[in-house]
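Practice problem: predict the structure.
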Amino acid sequence: MDMQGEHRIAAPREAVWEALNDDDVLRACIPGCESLERTSDNELHAVVVQKIGPVKARFEGEVELANINAPESYTIQGEGKGGVAGFAKGGADVTLTEEDGETILSYTVHAMVGGKIAQLGSRLIDSTAKKLAGKFFDNFQAHLNPEPVEETA
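Answer:
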């Protein structure tokens, strides 16, 4: 599966970079994330629960950050095992460019799935991946730009 996209985030590039490298922010923004722990400067251990069609799986695996060029770009690569449901592995190249005080986050993902989830078909897997990416970016944008809370008199 290959996927690419671009999101405009209403925050300066340095703030977006910091948030993308903050374990607590990622834990809160990744849909289905049960845990995310840094095991070294560039490595994380993650547990994520996802439902893809009729298959619900708990993926556990390692994520590595490589090709780091702060605050402009990096590559995220990893592999997760979901027991009888199968596995997912792949990577994403992420690039941040600043424009008019906002940040354009561009990404290109290359991923592969195997096992039971691979039998679901590429259309279902692709649509689920796009939906999860959209949810992540909605959560990420909301974290960087929280809605103001109205005070009641």
